[in-house]
Design a protein that fits this description.
The complex is a heterodimer of chains A (about 60) and B (about 450). With about 60 residues, chain A is mainly α. Chain A is built from two helices and no strands. Chain A is about 50% helix and about 0% strand. Chain B has about 450 residues and is α/β, with parallel strands linked by helices. The chains are: A mainly alpha (about 60), B alpha/beta (about 450).
Chain lengths: ~60, ~450
C-alpha cells in the first residue's frame, strides 16, 4: 500500500470513528513512514540494493 | 550541626550509626510533601501511615544491629506505573481508576528487602506517553524551581519529588527518555540501564521493546546503589569492583552533527564548557557521528506507537473517553501503523545499534547533551530553537530516544544551568551490555561535569 493510499484510507476511517483530531497526526506519521521506507538500509529482495552491511551473524549486538 | 544530607550515601552513614533516626528523616520528607506538594503536584498517592510504620520498624532493626545496607531507612518515591501492594497503579489515568495492586512489583520487593521506605506514588504523563507531565488525570506537575515550567516527563513527578526534597530518590521508567529528560531539566542524576538489566514486570508497559526501569537521584553513587539493589544480575562475587578509572586517558566519543545541530544556545554553551573541563582534566575527546541519525525519530515512532497501541487497543475501544485527549489521539494514531512499517523500523533499530556499537568501540563512553532545551513552559506545544519552530515532544526526545532503540545504558549528570537557573544535563552512554562500566566512568567524570543545582 502506498503511503498516499494508506493516508487516505486512515483519514477516512479516523473521521468515521469520530477521531477528526487524529488526522493531522496521521499526516505527520505519513511523513515519518516515508522516511522509513526510503531509508537506504531497507531490505531489497533483488539483492541489488542491499543497505549497510551488519557484522557477520547479523545480530547487531 | 552537620549540613542536611541530600544524597543516599551521606544519609546512610548517619542512619547506620543511629546519629539520625529513620523516623525523623521520613517525618521531614512527609512534612515537605504536605507543605510543598499542593503547589508542585508531584504525588498521586502519599503513603504517610505506611511510611511512618516502616520507619519505626527500620529504627528498631538498626538499633538491634540488623542494618541491611545503604538503602535501609531511605525514603523513596515510586512512579505510579509500578504495582505497590494495597494501592492503585493509576498510570495517571482515569482508565485505571478501578485498579488495585494485590502484590508488589519485583522491583518494589527488592527495594523493600533493602529496607527502603516508600513515601508515595508519583504523578506522571498519562501512561508514560509524553515528555512534559502535563497530560495527567491528576493535573500537571510543576517544576519546583519555576511553577510555570514542566519538570520534564514522563517521570516528572518522580524528578520533582527528589528535587523538592520529598524523597531521596525515585523509581522511574524510560521508554524514549522519561528518566533522563526530567532528571536533566531538574538538575538530577537519572540512569537508564542497559535493556533488561532491571525487570519491568509489575510495571504498566508503554512499549515493551523500549521500556527500561531506573533510578532518579542526586549522585552517580546513589544511582549505583539503587541499580545494584534493583538489577536482575548481581555482580560476580569473585570480581570485586576495582574503583573508578582515572579521568586522565579516558576516551570519550562526543556525538556531533545531528546531536549538536539543534541546541538552545545556553545548553550548547554549557555542554561545550563541560567538554573543555573534561579535556583539561585529561580525558581524550573525539568527535563521532551516527550515519543514520536522521532515521532515529521515524524508527522510534513506529516501534513505540505500534507496541503502545497494541497494549491499549481494547481500552481505547471501551474507555476511550477516559484517556486525556492528546494521549488518546497518539495511541489511536499508533493503531494505523502497518505491520510492514513496524518490521522496517526493527531493521532500522539493528542498523542504529550497529552504528552506536561502532561509535563506542575502543572508547570508554559516548558524550552528548541530554535535552536540547531547558525545562519547557507549561502549555507550550512548540518552541523556538535557533531559527526553527520545533514541537516540544520531538525536541525533548531528540537526544535520548536513540538509546532506548539500541538498548545501550545511558545516564544524565548535571553539567550547568541557564542564566535563569534552569538545570542542564550531559549524557554518557556506555557499552551495550555493561551498565556497571558506564557507572564507573560516570562517577569518575561527575566532579568535572559541573555542580548543577542539586549540589
Amino acid at each position: 500500500m502506498t503511503i498516499k493510499t494508506w493516508l487516505d484510507v486512515a483519514s477516512v476511517d479516523a473521521e468515521r470513528r469520530g477521531l477528526v483530531a487524529v488526522k493531522p497526526l496521521l499526516e505527520a506519521l505519513a511523513r515519518a513512514t516515508a522516511t522509513l521506507r526510503t531509508a537506504d538500509w531497507n531490505f531489497d529482495a533483488t539483492g541489488e540494493f542491499d543497505g549497510p552491511a551488519l557484522a557477520a551473524g547479523t545480530d547487531a549486538d | 550541626m552537620p549540613t542536611e544530607p541530600r544524597t543516599i550515601t551521606s544519609l546512610a552513614t548517619l542512619l547506620s550509626t543511629g546519629d539520625v533516626s529513620v523516623a525523623a528523616v521520613v517525618d521531614r520528607c512527609l512534612d515537605v510533601i504536605a507543605k510543598r506538594d499542593p503547589a508542585i503536584n508531584a504525588f498521586i498517592t502519599v503513603m504517610a501511615d505506611e511510611a511512618r510504620q516502616a520507619a519505626r520498624d527500620a529504627d528498631a532493626e538498626i538499633a538491634a544491629g540488623r542494618y541491611r545496607g545503604p538503602l535501609h531507612g531511605i525514603p523513596i518515591s515510586i512512579k505510579d506505573l509500578f504495582d505497590v501492594r494495597g494501592t492503585s497503579t493509576t498510570a495517571a489515568s482515569r482508565v485505571r481508576q478501578n485498579h488495585r495492586a494485590d502484590a508488589d512489583a519485583p522491583t518494589i520487593e527488592r527495594l523493600r528487602a533493602a529496607g527502603a521506605i516508600i513515601v508515595g506514588k508519583t504523578n506522571l504523563h498519562e501512561f508514560a506517553l509524553g515528555t512534559t507531565n502535563e497530560e495527567s488525570a491528576f493535573g500537571p506537575v510543576h517544576h519546583p524551581l519555576d511553577p510555570n515550567r514542566s519538570p520534564g516527563g514522563s517521570s516528572g513527578g518522580s524528578a520533582a519529588s527528589v528535587l523538592a526534597d520529598m524523597a531521596y530518590a525515585s523509581l522511574g521508567t524510560d521508554t524514549g527518555g522519561s528518566i533522563r529528560i526530567p532528571s536533566a531539566v531538574c538538575g538530577l542524576v537519572g540512569l537508564k540501564p542497559a535493556f533488561r538489566d532491571i525487570t519491568t514486570r509489575g510495571c504498566v508497559p508503554l512499549s515493551s521493546s523500549l521500556d527500561h526501569v531506573g533510578p532518579i537521584c542526586r549522585s552517580v553513587a546513589d544511582a549505583r546503589l539503587l541499580y545494584e539493589a534493583l538489577c536482575d544480575a548481581p555482580p560476580a562475587i569473585d570480581t570485586p569492583r576495582e574503583g573508578n578509572p582515572p579521568v586522565e586517558g579516558l576516551r570519550l566519543g562526543v556525538m556531533r552533527e545531528y546531536f549538536t545541530a539543534l541546541l538552545d544556545p545556553q545548553v550548547g554553551s554549557a555542554f561545550e564548557s563541560a567538554c573543555s573541563r573534561l579535556s583539561d582534566a585529561g580525558a581524550i575527546l573525539e568527535d563521532v557521528t551516527i550515519a543514520h541519525a536522521g532515521d532515529i525519530g521515524p524508527v522510534y515512532l513506529h516501534i513505540a506507537l505500534s507496541e503502545a497501541a497494541a497494549f491499549h487497543a481494547k481500552a481505547l475501544e471501551s474507555r476511550g473517553e477516559d484517556y486525556t485527549p492528546t494521549v488518546r489521539q497518539r495511541l489511536e494514531m499508533g493503531r494505523y501503523i502497518l505491520a510492514e512499517d513496524y518490521v522496517r523500523a526493527l531493521r532500522g533499530r539493528d542498523v542504529l545499534r550497529h552504528e552506536v556499537n561502532a561509535a563506542i568501540e575502543g572508547r570508554d563512553a559516548l558524550l552528548l547533551p541530554t535535552v536540547p532545551v531547558p525545562a519547557t513552559r507549561l502549555g507550550a506545544t512548540t518552541m523556538r530553537v535557533g531559527t526553527n519552530e520545533e514541537s516540544v515532544r520531538n525536541i525533548t526526545l531528540r537526544l535520548t530516544q536513540l538509546f532506548n532503540i539500541t538498548g545501550h545504558p545511558a545516564i544524565t549528570i548535571p553539567c550547568g544551568q541557564t542564566v535563569e537557573g534552569l538545570p542542564i544535563g550531559a549524557q554518557l552512554v556506555g557499552p551495550r551490555t555493561n551498565t556497571r562500566a558506564l557507572l564507573d566512568v560516570a562517577e569518575a567524570l561527575e566532579p568535572y561535569l559541573g555542580p548543577g543545582v542539586s549540589r
